[in-house]
Structure formats: C-alpha cells, structure tokens
Write a structure and sequence with these properties.
- The chain is 26% helix and 20% strand.
- By secondary structure, it is α+β, with helices and mostly antiparallel strands.
- The strands form six sheets. The protein has a seven-stranded mixed β-sheet, with helices on one face. A five-stranded mixed β-sheet has the order 17-16-18-13-19.
- Strand 8 and strand 9 form a beta hairpin.
- Helix 7 runs antiparallel to helix 9 and helix 14 runs antiparallel to helix 15.
Length: 559
C-alpha cells in the first residue's frame, strides 16, 4: 500500500550536523565515524514477480527498486520532508533550500564534496538536468510539478513553477536526483531499466537475483560511513509469509499491516520488536464511482455514510493500529485538530440507521421483502473490491458490505482481484466502490484534492486518472482547492479549507471510514536509533524517501 505527498521546514540528521530553519545551511560534516557493520533485512509482501526483472529507474514506481525501496538508498533527493513530528524539512543533497513568498520559485544550493558512486562529482548541472528531464517528459512528472524554468544562478539552482507549490513542497524536494553523465544517453527515461544504478546514496547494488537484492555500503559516501554494512531486500508472496519472517527474525524491517500486532509481532520479542503506526493526515475512504448507480445519487452516498461502523473498522480491520476516525470532515485526530472548521469541531460520526432510511425514503427509495429498491424500481446492488492478500482492506470492505446489507437492504458484494487488476480498475473507473487511502501532508489539502479535484478528470490519459478515482465533479470544490494551494496567507487558506469541508460533509464525494497511519515494523536487536512515537524525526516506512535518513540515524545495538 502506498502513500504520497508531504510539506516543509528543517531539522537535524544524525549523520549530518544540526540544521536550523528552512533557508539555513549545513556544514556538510558527518557525525558518523564508526565503520559500517552487520546487516539488516528489509522485506515487502508483493510477490516474487517484483524480482523477475531488475529495474533501478527511480521514475518507474512499479519497478524492483521503488517497489522494494532499495532505490531510496541509491538515489537521493534535495531534501527530506517529515509528515509527522514537527513537519520539518532536512536538506540532503542541497545544503540550503529557499522558497519565495508565494512558493512559485525555489532556490537550491547544491551540497559540496558529493560524489556519484562511479567517482564522478555531483554538481548543480545534475540538479538542472534532473528537473529539466521532468519538465520535458510529462510522464516523469509524477508529482505534478508544472515546472516552467530550471536554471543555474551562480552556485545555486533556481526552479520556477507555473503555480504555487505550497501544498506540494515535498513533491518538489523529494525528487530522486539522477546523474547527467549517465542519463543524457538514455533514449527513453520512462522505460529504461537503468541496470547500472549510479547514485549519490550510501549504498550500491552488490547482487540482484530472483532471491533478493543485496546492497553494500559505500566507503566514500558524502554523509560518512553508513552504520549498516549490508542491506538485504526480500519479497514474500503475501502479508502472512512476511509476518512469519518478522516473527522468526528472518526479516528486520518491513511495512505491512498485522492483525493484532501486539500479540502477533511485538509479544514475540517484546524487548526488541517494535510496531509503529505514524499518524499522518491521511484517512482511508470508501471511494465511490460517482458516475454510475447507485453512487451517482448523493442520497445513497449520505445513507451509506450514516450506517458505517467506524469503531468496528478501527478494531477489526485495523487492529487498532491507529485511532478511530471520528470527525465528520474525515480529518484524522488529534493530528488534524487545528484544521477542522469551527462548525464541525464537535460533529462526530454516529450510526443512524433510522436517519439513513429517512434520507432514502425522501429520495424515492423503497423496500421490497427487505431489499432496497431505487427510485426507478431496480434493486440496489454494487460491488466493493480490494486486492486479495490485503488483509486489512479486505476485512474493511467485508465489514462495510455486511453493515450496508443488514441496515439498508442493499445487495453489497465483495470482490478481491489481484493487485495489478485492482489498480487498473481504479484508474480506469471499472469499479463501483473500493477502500482506498488518500494522500498525506502537513495539512488536509491532499485529503480533499484526492477525492474532489476534477482537474484529474480533465487530465485523464487513455481513460485513466491519477487521482479523484471516483470522478467526482464539482467546479466550486476544484476552484477552492486551487485557491488554497495558491493562497499567500494563512487566513485565505483557512477560509478555503472551511468551505471544502462543508462541501465534503454535505455532498459526500467519498465516505471516510478510518485513519491510515504509516505502518512499519522493525527490531532493535542489531541497531537502535529508529524513529518512534517518542522520536518522530521520520516515519519508519522503508519505502519512503526518509528511509535513507533512518539508516543514517542508526547505531549498532549496545553503543
């Protein structure tokens, strides 16, 4: 399961000297002087097919490097953005990053004395090349950067954008920087596997096979010696297989959902096993196809929203990995308390079957032998689908289907296709309803952008959209999202966000059902210094841009 998007300020890296606020620089010196030692095994539950072909291209999100996360240890970004804690930004390949007042221009100072793993120097030209590659190749613009100009200005690089990047600072800063001397010879950067992975990161590929990937620490990394000598990346067929590996200690670091994580993981070695669900601003929602019955009817969407048992979802589907989603705006709490509009501060979800039936009756629905009949006289029927093996999501849609059947009488079915089919269905609109995550950031903009921005429909390619999968159209919501993103002050952003919440609550473009913490499991038998609830310098997900930051913060156990 994937997560995207983030926001900005500046923190300290354990491997680099302390940094001040955004716009301030680091001296680039390393605090890591001990030799690399030992190994860690990192794993995913996506199946052996990921390792069938070596794809180290960081712009191919489904390739082996990005799927497993080992690309994060090879290619590095200008800065790393923290979606938890204090939402700080840590300059990485940049020693300094400065935004102009309306966030349409970013000035970057490249870090000095950095080398690519083939020995060639990293320069400002590599930054210019990478962002121009994105600018000139729309298929590589995964974050919707909308660059207008990339140029050098003395020792700096200046990036200009056609719109404010206030809400997408993370998308801009966390682009993987690639070497011009290699990539200028690549004919099609959208498809090339890039078998020779040249990066600035602390690791290089030692071996790649269908059995796994082994990375070895560089001896000349700009940030100093990586604490861990080798990283081993493995794939398991599903969550069950990976859980067994975590329980036995075969795997040290992963990101999976675990049913009853305390009993099934932590208690297997309570001294060392850690499960952490970082509570980011990202809810799970029933994303409904608003272009077809029954979810093209706001009355039906409202009724379903009124009978969902969110407490059961938190307990049974999510095993209390995160707090229950309680506010009608869909904004997770307490993380998002400051953003909830005054009129909704105390409005929480309540199961109201009688109220839901009245909404339906007023809209012309009837019942026959307990079955819900729509205003045209047809039985109401739809299918909820999520990938097989995604235990939390499948349990979630099973709960929802049962709730809707027993309370409203609609024929709610469940389907569990393979993940590739599901992703294709979601993008093309070949679904009735799915349980899906939203983007996360340091404010709720991404939550509403993902389910209410009709710009994604206008930008559809081959009938496939990249977001707003429910194809909800509301010009006012789209305008407000743009207004928020381009606002130059907090008051304007607050006003736009309050109006967006009102549209979301009243029109129910999607049905919020639970929080979506960024999950991770790790053990402290070999290394300490991991992020945690008490030390939120990053999330602990090994597939995120911050994975390299986590590695550089580790220390051998006992030291």
């Amino acid at each position: 399961m994937r997560l995207r998007k983030t926001l900005i300020t500046v923190s300290a890296i354990a491997a680099i000297s302390a940094l001040a606020l955004t716009g301030c620089s680091s001296n680039g010196s390393s605090g890591t002087t001990a030799a690399s030692t030992g190994s860690l095994t990192v794993a995913k539950p996506d199946g052996a097919a990921i390792l069938a072909t070596q794809i180290n291209n960081p712009f191919i999100t489904t390739g082996s490097g990005m799927s497993l996360g080992y690309d994060r240890m090879i290619y590095e970004p200008l800065a790393i953005v923290n979606p938890v804690g204090k939402n700080e930004t840590t300059p990485w390949l940049a020693s300094k990053v400065t935004w102009n007042s309306d966030y349409t221009q970013l000035t970057v100072t490249p870090r000095a004395n950095v080398k690519w793993n083939d020995g060639k120097p990293f320069t400002a030209d590599d930054i210019v090349f990478t962002y121009n590659l994105i600018k000139n190749t729309p298929a590589l613009d995964l974050g919707g950067l909308k660059l207008t100009e990339v140029k050098k200005d003395g020792d700096n690089v200046v990036l200009n954008f056609s719109e404010s990047k206030f809400v997408k600072q993370g998308d801009v800063l966390q682009v993987a920087i690639v070497p011009e001397h290699q990539w200028k010879g690549i004919a099609d950067p959208t498809k090339d596997a890039v078998k020779d992975a040249i990066g600035t990161g602390p690791y290089t590929i030692k071996t790649f096979s269908s059995q796994g990937v082994v990375l070895k620490a560089r001896s000349d990394y700009w940030g100093g010696k990586a604490p861990v000598a080798e990283l081993k990346y493995l794939e398991y067929n599903d969550n069950t297989g990976l859980l067994r590996a975590l329980q036995s200690g075969e795997t040290d670091w992963a990101q999976i959902f675990i049913t009853d994580y305390q009993k099934n993981y932590v208690d297997k070695d309570p001294k060392h096993n850690v499960f952490w669900g970082a509570n980011v601003l990202s809810p799970d929602m029933i994303v409904v196809n608003t272009t077809k019955a029954p979810f093209n009817d706001v009355a039906f969407r409202k009724a379903v929203n009124m009978v969902i048992d969110r407490k059961a979802h938190a307990e049974k589907a999510r095993s209390n990995a995160g707090p229950e989603l309680t506010n009608v705006t869909g904004i997770p709490q307490p993380t998002g308390d400051q953003y909830i509009a005054p009129e909704y501060k105390d409005q929480t979800f309540k199961i109201d079957v009688d109220g839901a039936k009245k909404v339906l009756t007023d809209a012309g629905y009837t019942w026959k032998s307990g079955a819900l009949i729509d205003p045209s006289g047809k039985p109401v029927s739809f299918t909820l689908q999520d990938p097989q093996g995604w235990n939390d999501y499948v349990t979630g849609i099973q709960l929802v289907a049962t709730q809707i059947k027993t309370t409203l009488g609609a024929d709610a079915k469940v389907a569990t296709p393979d993940a590739d089919t599901w992703f294709a269905n979601v993008a093309s609109g070949n679904f009735d309803a799915v349980l899906h995550w939203t983007g996360s950031g340091s404010n709720p903009w991404h939550i509403y952008d993902d389910v209410m921005n009709s710009s994604y429909i206008d930008q559809a390619a081959g009938g496939k959209v990249s977001d707003n999968f429910g194809r909800y159209k509301n010009p006012e919501a789209t305008a407000l999202l743009k207004e928020y993103a381009q606002a130059s002050d907090d008051d304007s952003r607050t006003a736009a966000l309050n109006k967006l919440q009102k549209i979301f609550v009243e029109d129910v473009p999607a049905i919020p059902i639970g929080t979506h913490p960024q999950l991770a499991e790790y053990d402290t038998r070999k290394f300490t210094g991991w992020p945690s609830e008490s030390n939120q310098y990053a999330t602990a997900d090994p597939t995120q841009p911050s994975a390299v930051q986590v590695i550089m913060n580790l220390k051998p156990a006992g030291k």
